[in-house]
UniProtKB/TrEMBL annotation, chain A:
Similarity-based family: Belongs to the UPF0065 (bug) family.
PANTHER family assigned to the protein according to its UniProt record, in alphabetical order: BLR1237 PROTEIN (PTHR42928:SF5), TRICARBOXYLATE-BINDING PROTEIN (PTHR42928)
InterPro entries given in the database record: BUG (IPR005064), Bug_dom1 (IPR042100)
Listed name of the protein: Tripartite-type tricarboxylate transporter, receptor component TctC
UniProt KW keywords: Receptor, Signal
Signal peptide: 1-22
Organism name: Celeribacter halophilus
KW Signal (keyword) present: yes
UniProtKB/TrEMBL annotation, chain B:
Transmembrane segments: 20-49, 61-86, 106-132, 144-164, 170-188, 200-220, 260-282, 355-379, 391-408, 414-447, 468-487
A Pfam family annotated for this UniProt entry: TctA
InterPro entries hit by this protein: DUF112_TM
Domain DUF112: 20-439
Record keywords: Membrane, Transmembrane, Transmembrane helix
PANTHER family: TRICARBOXYLIC TRANSPORT PROTEIN
UniProt-recorded name of the protein: TctA family transporter
Length: 324, 494
């Protein structure tokens, strides 16, 4: 008996010595949640929607810090520059984890080794919006037009290498057509240009297109998610239409990440809290109203998603670079 | 709902006590953040945004809008008294406001700025009520080629803003254009002159540039100043008021400035900084004594101040009617609307008349209120000059640092202010005009992106600038402007 309790004492001491961040007394101080976009942007709103119930669940404040710039990259950099003490995290869109390593020189971090995925939060599809008098009403019709007039259809995106640009290039590759790219800086500029009949269309966030569709100044031909989107049930899915493959899918997402080296127990705890938060109807409803669908899932599933999208967009970027 | 019914309904929303209190609070807060150099409406709205989750959507938006137009009033105060523009939009006001204050007429300069701001806002509100639909139609007709042609005209017209030698002015505009090149190239995604710094990928921060050129540079040049503070005699309120002759000089520049401001504010992406520069250039052109500009002309204050205030009101036209924000602050306002479940866009007048007309009515009430609180405040602002420099300038450096940091939480930007401040000091010692550098910096990227986009859309055919009627008008006007300058220069030399 004596022997046994002595052993367990040693075992306990060993556990205690493993670090001050043993899961039971974590978190002992406020959490810092970096967001690479300004206040009021959709990644910021999503981060705040999660941060509030998360603070309640953990019993410590979760401080959202906006570090906007470079397409969200600065937010991730700031998280990594912060002391890696199990208290600094970030909510980020897909770009800084899946395409920044290809598009940003001197990125200063490697998404594959410096980032520990915690949980996917939500995904958003893009819709293909075109001018109200575009001579096609379906994705198949659009592909037909593009096949007959190669390179004539001008589409707008929110910049070189943006989700809107890469999605359009993926679409063109898969459908075997050629489209003409005009980069803009915001969806607002793209939609104005479509309404003004300067360009023919573009892939964009549903929330950017819907007000103009309702006013009859634009039409939507299809959506890039693999299943119909709950808030836009009537918009047909692109996958499988005309020459597009059955598994065609292009989505933007927001996820919760930590610096690699963060205690796995902390990551597991956060993942389970976030999955619970995403199950709350009021959180899911608010996200859906902004055009985002909650995607509760495991840490491993999120890591797989990052790897899949890195490969998917990497191949698209290869194609763009080969043509330059 | 007719316009009249809408307006009456809006007044009932805006005069509801809970909404009214938020509106007035926003307007006062806006004035104060406008006065503080570097801390602008952007920072204040960002900080207030999370709080608005807990109030009604009308109250929230009315408060945020109050901060936005209130800041336009405050921005001029430090420009006039200390040559430190509170916001980039009021940088032009330093040109004639500061000399006026130096001549002991600070009170008159502030009065002119307040009354012009108020008149500009009111004319902007009238435009918003009656011409919103027409203006939003115009905004969608403006293509890339039209924007490029218009901006080039603006650059040519405003390049004469400085009072120094033409070659020196041109050098400053070009330096501004070059600084505007820094950042990611939109067309190719390549980085230009960023030296591997991700902080420079989105370009040099406008607030950091403006605060470095004007604020930090001004502080540095005052280190040599041995006087403890500017001598200011106590001014009775009566003497703040302009004489009858001076009063008569106000309406014309206010009208011209408001017209310019309303138009440019309604075009997404142009905004109030450009309209205040153009208004100043216009006043100089139409004046019989252009040589006197830069020495304390009333027109040099009233035109630009009316222009930036009317632009801040008409900037709501594309935001509310098209869902297209014209500048980062409007993008923030749009975000706030969406958070509160209001989707701005062509359907907003029908789907959310409460919000639309409530905002419009609150603009009128808020501006009236701002005029009444700001006129008595002039005496207090003037007393700011009594503060000894050794207290005032360190405080200004702190405020500038806070303000620049608040834009995007970047300590890199504070270092930028310090560096730009030293350059700005050297430039002002050599009698270069920093306002022109700012103009080149604001217009350069707009001209470049629109010019290149127009050429992309036309597939490389430059005839697009002649074939599109709007672009053609601006090209002809630009040519006429250059010709006129050449002829008048030729006549003078004879």
């Amino acid at each position: 008996m004596f022997h046994h309790s002595k052993l367990s004492c040693i075992a306990l001491a060993a556990i205690c010595a493993a670090g001050p961040l043993a899961a039971e007394d974590w978190p002992s101080a406020p959490l810092h949640l970096y967001v690479g976009f300004p206040a009021g942007s959709s990644p910021d709103t999503i981060a705040r929607l999660v941060a509030e119930p998360l603070a309640d669940a953990l019993g410590q404040p979760v401080v959202v810090e906006n570090k906007p710039g470079a397409g969200g990259v600065i937010g991730v950099q700031q998280m990594l520059a912060d002391k890696n003490d199990g208290l600094s995290f970030a909510v980020t869109i897909n770009g800084p984890l899946t395409t920044a390593q290809r598009l940003v020189e001197d990125l200063s971090y490697d998404p594959a080794t410096d980032i520990a995925p915690v949980a996917l939060i939500a995904t958003s599809p893009l819709v293909l919006g075109v001018t109200s008098d575009f001579p096609a009403d379906t994705v198949a019709g659009f592909i037909e037009q593009a096949t007959e007039n190669p390179g004539d259809i001008a589409y707008g995106s929110v910049g070189h290498g943006s989700g809107a640009h890469l999605t359009a290039e993926l679409f063109a590759n898969e459908a075997g057509v050629e489209l003409y790219h005009i980069p803009f800086q915001s969806y607002a500029e793209v939609t104005t240009s479509i309404i003004g009949h300067e360009i023919d269309g573009g892939f964009m966030a549903p929330s950017a297109a819907m007000p103009h569709v309702e006013a009859g100044k634009m039409k939507i031909l299809g959506i890039t998610s693999s299943a119909p989107f709950p808030s836009l049930p009537d918009v047909p899915v692109m996958a499988g239409q005309s020459s597009l493959p059955e598994d065609f899918r292009a989505e933007l997402w927001n996820g919760f990440i930590a610096p690699s080296g963060t205690d796995p127990e902390i990551i597991e705890r956060l993942n389970s809290e976030i999955v619970e938060i995403l199950a709350m109807p009021e959180v899911a409803d608010k996200l859906l109203a902004m055009g985002w669908q909650v995607q509760p899932g495991s840490t491993e599933a999120f890591a797989t998603r990052i790897a899949e999208d890195t490969a998917l967009w990497g191949a698209v970027i290869d194609g763009i670079e080969a043509r330059q | 709902m007719t316009t009249y019914e809408g307006l009456m309904h809006g007044l009932s929303v805006a005069l509801h006590p809970s909404v009214l209190v938020y509106s007035l609070f926003g307007a006062i807060l806006g004035t104060f953040v406008g006065v503080l150099p570097g801390i602008g409406a952007m920072a204040a709205i960002t900080l207030l945004l999370p709080i608005t989750y807990y109030v009604s959507s009308e109250a929230a938006l009315v408060m945020l809008a109050g901060v936005y137009y209130g800041a336009q009033y405050g921005g001029a105060v430090a420009s006039i008294l200390l040559r430190l523009p509170g916001t980039p939009q009021s940088a032009v006001t330093t040109l004639d406001g500061y000399p006026m204050a130096q001549n002991g007429r600070a009170g008159l300069a502030l009065f002119t700025s307040m009354i012009s701001s108020f008149s500009g806002s009111m004319l902007g509100i009238i435009v918003l009520i009656f011409l919103a639909e027409w203006l939003s139609g115009v905004a969608t007709k403006f293509g890339a080629a039209d924007y490029a042609a218009m901006m080039i005209m603006g650059l040519v017209a405003a390049s004469t803003v400085g009072s120094g030698r033409p070659a020196k002015n041109l050098a400053m505009v070009v330096l501004g254009l070059i600084i505007g090149v820094i950042g990611t190239d939109v067309n190719s995604g390549l980085q230009r002159f960023t030296f591997g710094r991700t902080e420079l990928m989105d370009g040099v921060n406008l607030v950091a540039l403006a605060m470095g050129l004007f604020g930090a540079a001004e502080v540095i040049s005052n280190i040599r100043n041995t006087e403890r503070s500017t001598p200011v005699a106590r001014i009775p309120l009566r003497e703040l008021l302009p004489s009858r002759a001076e009063l008569k000089r106000l309406p014309a520049p206010i009208l011209r400035g408001s017209t310019l401001g309303s138009f440019f504010g309604a075009l997404p992406g142009t905004g109030s900084t450009i309209s205040s520069f153009l208004s100043y250039a216009l006043e100089r052109r139409v004046s019989r004594e252009p040589k006197k500009f830069g020495t304390g002309q009333i027109e040099g204050i009233s035109g630009p101040e009316a222009a930036n205030n009317s632009a801040s009101i008409s900037a709501f036209v594309p935001t509310l009617t098209l869902g297209i924000p014209g500048d980062p602050i409007m993008a923030l306002m749009l975000g706030a609307l969406v958070i509160h479940g209001v989707q701005p866009g062509p359907m907003m007048l029908e789907s959310n008349p409460d919000m639309f007309w409530g905002l419009v009515a609150s603009f009128a009430i808020g501006n009236l209120f701002l005029l009444f609180i700001n006129l008595p405040l002039i005496g207090i602002w003037v007393n700011m000059l009594r503060i000894p420099f050794r207290w005032l300038y360190p405080a200004i450096i702190v405020f500038i640092s806070m303000g620049v940091y608040s834009v995007r939480g970047s300590s890199f930007d504070i270092a930028m202010v310090a560096g730009i401040g030293i350059i700005g000091y050297a430039l002002s010692r050599a009698k270069f005009s920093p306002a022109l550098l700012l103009l080149g910096f604001v217009l350069g990227p707009l001209i470049e992106t629109n010019l290149r986009r127009a050429m992309l859309i036309s597939r490389g055919d430059p005839m697009v600038f002649i074939e599109r009627p709007i672009a053609c008008v601006f090209v002809v006007l630009t040519a006429a402007l250059i010709l006129w300058s050449l002829i008048s220069a030729f006549r003078k030399s004879q």
